[in-house]
Amino acid sequence: VIGGRTSRPGRWPWQCSLQSDPSGHICGCVLIGKKWALTVAHCFEGRENAAVWKVLFGINNLDHPSAFSQTRTVKRIILHPRYNRAVVDYDISIIELDEEINETSYVRPVCLPSKDQVAKPDTYCYITGWGHVGNRMPFKLQEGEVRIIPLEQCQSYFDMKTITSRMLCAGYESGTVDSCMGDSGGPLVCEQSEGRWTLFGLTSWGSVCFSKVLGPGVYSNVTHFADWIQKQIYSYTFLLN
Amino acid sequence: CVPSTSCSEPCSGVSNCVTHNQTDCSQCELINLELCMNLPYNYTTFPNYLGHRTQKEASLSWESSLFPALVQTNCYKYLMFFACTILVPKCDPEKNQQIPPCRSLCEHSKERCESVLGVVGLQWPEDTYCTQFPEDNNGNKTCLMPDQDVKECSPSHFRCRSGRCILTSRRCDGQSDCEDDSDEKNCGCTERGLFECPSSKVCIKHMMICDGFPDCPGNFDEKNCSFCKENEMVCGNHECVHRNQWCDGHKDCKDSSDEWGCVTLSKSTNPESLLIVHKSTADYHVCADDWEEELSWMACRQIGLGGPPVTEIVKEYNQSHRRKWLHLVPNWKRKNISTLQAALVRGQPCRSKSRVSLLCNKEDCGRRPAARMNKR
Fold first, then answer.
1. Pairwise CA distance, residues A193 & A197, whole Å
2. Helices (H), A163-241
3. Residues on chain A touching B37 (C-beta within 8 angstroms)
4. Range 310-349 of B in CB contact (< 8 A) with A
C-alpha cells in the first residue's frame, strides 16, 4: 500500500497471506467463511495446483508469525471461468481451505455484500496488504484509506484499458494512497451499519504504483460476483463432496 | 538459483530465488498484451527492451499507456508497431532468439513523436536508445521493419477516420471522441458484428448469448435458450432436467442449479419461521415426525445461516386445510445425505400433524475487535 500506515495487529482479522514455498508471500486474500477465502485469479497464473499454496491468517508481521496466527493448506482453487488474463477482467477466485479456521478476535470473516449492495461513489473505505510501499516491501501489514470513484471517471484515467462493470475503482487522482504489487487479492472494505465491515473489492490492477503515472487502483467488484460466490460455495459444500 | 544451490521452478514469471535471478529464461511465449495483438508475429520473449520482465509488467507500465496515447496525435504511422516491437519483442521460436526493431524505425519514431511529447512536458521513454538496434536489413531478417499494411490500432481500439486510435468502449458511447465523429457513426450492433440486447442499445458478442452469464440488462441474453418439455425444468446453464429431479439431493444439472435454493424459511414477523422445502417445482412444509436437531443445523447451513438453531414444532390446527407436506425418509441417517431435501419425500402421512419452524442465526462477520483501553 502506497501512502498508508502500519496497521495495528488484529485490526483487519479477515486479511490473509497467500504463500508458496520458497517465495513466501505472493498475494493477499480475504477470509469470508470458516473454510473459504477470496483472492484474485491472476495470483494463480501458472500456479493453479492447490498443493503448492498455504494460507496464513491472524498475522501482522510476515517475518514474525505470532501465537495468534493460523496456517491452512489449500484444498481447492475455483477460478472464475470468464477470467481473462489479457484484459484482467473477471479477476476473482475462491479458495477452499483444507480445514476450518478457529474463529478468534485475530481471525474472523468479513461480510459479503448482497447482489444489490454497492460501494457508493465518494465514500471512504480501506485497503490493506503487504504489498510495495514505494521504496520497499514491508513486513508489517499496511492499511490505507481510499475513496470510491465512479466508473466513468475511472475510465478517464485509463485511456487504453477498458474499465468494466466487474471492476471497482478507488483511490485518488494524485495516487497518494493506492494499492501496489503484492497487495493483489487483498481486501477493499467499507464500514456499514453497526460497525460491521463489508468486502466490496479485491485488489486487482492499476498503473505502476510507484512510477510517475498516477490515478486510482482498480479492484474486482465483489458485488458483481456475490451470486457466483454463494453458488460455488454452496455447490462445493453440499453437492460435490 | 544462482549463486545458491537451491532449486526452483524456472521462468515462471515469479522469482523464487533469493537473489531474484532467473537465468536462461529467454523462451518464446504467446503474446497476450492487449495493445499488441495485431502484430505480424505471435511470439515474444522477456525481458523486453524497456527492462520489463513479464508481459504483465509490460501491460501495466508507463510506456504501455504512453505509446497508445501518442498514436492519437498521428505523429508517425508506424509508431505503435515500433512500440510493440520493444514492449513485446518478436521471438524466433526456432532459435529462441529476440529480434529487435531496425534502427531506422526507432529513429523515425523518435524524430517525429518526441517533439509532440515535449509539448505536454513529457519525455521520450528512457532505454530506447536507437543505437542499440541494428542497422536496417539487407535481405537478412535480423531486425524488424513494418509492412505497408500494418494496422495502427490494436484489436481493442477503434481507428478513427482521421487515423487516431480510441478505446473500443468509447465507440458509440454517445460522445464524440474522434475529431471527425467517426466513432459515433454506423453504431448499430449488427453493423459492428455484435448482438443487440432487446429493449436496450447494449451490444454484446454473439458468444456471450446463452453462456450462463447474464450480460444484457434484464438478462435477455440468457432467456429462451432452452426448449424443455412440459415435465422438465431449465437449469442455469440451459440444460433440461425432469421436474422430479429438481431438489432431489442429487446434482442433475452440470452447474448444480437444480439443487440451489431448495431450502428456505417463510417470511414471518415472529422470530421463528416455517421451514419450506422446494421439491419438484412446488413448495412444501416439513412434517415434524422424527425431526432431529441435526437436521435443523443442516437446514440453517444450507440457507447460508448459522446456529445454534432454535427448533419449534408448530401444531397444524386447521385440519380441514389441506397442506403440502414433506416427510423424513426412514433410515435417513444411513443414507449419507448432504442436503436436507435428500432426506425428504412426498406422499407420506404426517402423524403429528405438526410442522417444523426454525430460527437460524446469521454467521458473525465483519466485526473488528474493540481497541484495547489503557489508563493514562
1. 8
2. 226-234
3. 86
4. 338-339
Q: How far apart are CA A186 and CA A130, in angstroms?
A: 9
- Tens-digit pLDDT string for chain B (376 aa): 444 444 455 445 455 544 444 444 557 888 878 778 777 888 899 899 998 888 878 887 888 878 877 876 778 878 888 999 999 999 987 888 899 999 999 999 998 888 887 777 777 887 778 888 988 766 666 888 887 766 667 666 787 887 777 777 778 877 788 878 888 888 888 887 888 888 887 888 888 999 888 889 888 899 889 889 989 999 988 999 999 999 998 899 998 999 999 999 987 666 668 899 998 888 888 998 889 999 999 999 998 887 788 888 888 776 555 567 899 988 888 888 889 999 998 888 888 888 899 888 888 899 987 766 677 7
C-alpha distance from B317 to closest chain A C-alpha (Å): 35
Whether residues A159 and B68 touch (CB distance < 8 A) is answered with yes
Q: Compute CA distances B73 → B70, B77, B178, whole Å.
A: 6, 10, 11
- Chain A residues with CB under 8 Å of B255 CB are 235
**Contacts with A193 (C-beta within 8 Å, 6 or more apart), sequence order:** none
- Which residue in chain A has the smallest CA separation from B153? A160
Report ipTM (2 d.p.): 0.88
Asked whether the beta carbons of residue A160 and residue B68 sit closer than 8 angstroms, the reply is: yes
A-to-B residue pairs, Cβ atoms closer than 8 angstroms = 120
